[in-house]
Design goal:
globular, six-stranded mixed β-sheet, nucleotide-binding, ATP-binding, alpha/beta, four-stranded antiparallel β-sheet
Length: about 210
């Protein structure tokens, strides 16, 4: 599913994340690590947001050789999402749905899943942290992704939304969608059968079942 080779991401601070070779099968993978270990750095590189040395390939599509085709199949929800204050969630959905070529009925279904119908027309500047997180999660499921990256998806959302998110992840897994998930919130761990757990430490990655 996902192959990472000769990966290096350097920062001026001296921090360096390095992965010589990593091959992840289809399914759901848990990414662990302390704050500053490089989880978000890795996620943003895989999502095509951060430049890096090396190569990342998803189902034989190279992010560097075919960046547009690659990004169409990778969706990402940040741990602490930020959007332009003057836009509404409906504005964001319209933009992302067009880029991801979302099916016509998908948007309304996801708005109901995340319970955002009552405020989707309001400006982002009025959103609470929980509303921002719901918006980010909704956008991550638009289109027909092959890989969805969820960075701390269970923080700041209520228990009902957590349950709906778990159910949605399971539904997408059955369709062949794969997931990379990071979390400090342990209660959701038993709900999934992880293909692997990756531990980030000191700029390196350790893979285990």
């Amino acid at each position: 599913m996902l192959q990472i080779n000769n990966f290096i991401k350097r920062y001026s601070t001296g921090f360096r994340l390095e992965i010589n070779s990593l091959h992840l099968k289809e399914g759901i993978h848990l990414i662990k690590g302390e704050n500053g270990a490089g989880k978000s750095t890795l996620f943003k590189a895989i999502a095509g947001i951060h430049a890096f040395e090396g190569e990342i390939v998803l189902d034989n599509i190279s992010i560097k050789q075919h960046p547009v085709a690659y990004r169409k199949h990778v969706n990402y929800s940040e741990a602490e999402p930020q959007f332009p204050d003057f836009l509404s969630l409906d504005d964001l959905i319209l933009f992302v749905a067009r880029a991801k070529q979302s099916p016509d009925d998908q948007v309304q279904s996801l708005k109901e899943e995340f319970g955002v119908n009552n405020y989707s027309k309001n400006r982002i500047s009025s959103y609470s942290s929980g509303m921002l997180k719901k918006a980010s999660l909704l956008l991550a499921f638009l289109g027909s992704p092959k890989l969805i990256i969820l960075d701390e998806p269970f923080t700041t959302i209520d228990t009902e939304t957590q349950a709906n998110l778990i159910s949605l992840i399971k539904k997408e897994l059955l369709k062949g969608v794969s997931f990379l998930i990071s979390s400090h919130h342990l209660p959701e761990i038993p709900f999934f059968d992880y293909e692997s757990t990756l531990q980030l430490k000191n700029g390196n990655i350790i893979l285990s079942k």
